[in-house]
Amino acid sequence: MTIELIDEIILTLLIAFLIDGFIGEPPNKIHPVVQIGKIIDTVTKFTKNISHKKGENFEKFMGSILAIGLPSMVGLIVYLISVQSFHILGTVIFIILSSIILKASFSIRAMDIHINDVITELDNHNLDMARKKLAKIVSRETSTLSESKILSACIECVAESFVDGVLSPLFYYGFLNTAGAMAYRTSNTLDSMIAYKEEYYMHYGWMAAKLDTIMNFVPARISPAFLIPAIIICRKDWKNAVMILKRDRNKVESFNAGIPMAIMAGGLNIQLEKTNHYKLGDMNEELSIQRCKISLKITKIAAAICVIGFVIPITVILNYLGWWNVFFGF
Question: Which of the four pLDDT bands, split at 50, 70 and 90, describes residue 3?
Fold first, then answer.
């Protein structure tokens, strides 16, 4: 039996974006990613101390089970929900459930809100509060940052989040539907929670860090295809974005984050700096609140280009090849 699912897949994608734009994040009590975080926290507390006593190799082994097992389990559960909802509950319920699940895997509005909260404090010349609000979205020490360093951190966060918060989940949705998007989001959540390079997580979070790097590898490298056209649309310096991308993308310790960050630095003609770690771009223009706002605009346009120019075409091609009938068991 052959059933055309492409309309439902595309409609799910569009509804998920509408949910993100007009509603935003669900309450923490029912947010799937928050619940996944609680599972990670519980499992880590239970297994970390036990594995630590048995040596670093066993600690890596236990951390690897969590890093591989949890995304696989989440992906499988979401896959079963998707398939069964379509077969048993029908098209409408399938679209509603899929849209809600997909929305949980990415976030554009939340980043916009967080960055604008910091910008508002800077506008009000409240540097201490701006530092505190920035600390909610970055891992670096913020208590002594100047206004320019705060703006740099904001723009870096916006650029990096385009890949791991938007492009990557959409990439995996394009090939593996909501199961792929949520498996990725689980892996990324593991990375953010247990893949710190501090001593406590050095071995336990090793596999989580590796898998997140692997899963972001392709999305990070196709991100210029969406960010650079967005920079052109915003009438910023796309040629400099390409130049800085080539020159500075490897200056960041992260294997993937340097790509979108270098593009943003070049496109805005600014220098992004994390003290004692890296400098991306040239200070041709001063860091400003206006440029921070433009970075948000660039990523929103890039997300739209990604959906229209990549995700939808990929799902259509896979539909033509019969992939979705195989995937959903028809």
Answer: low
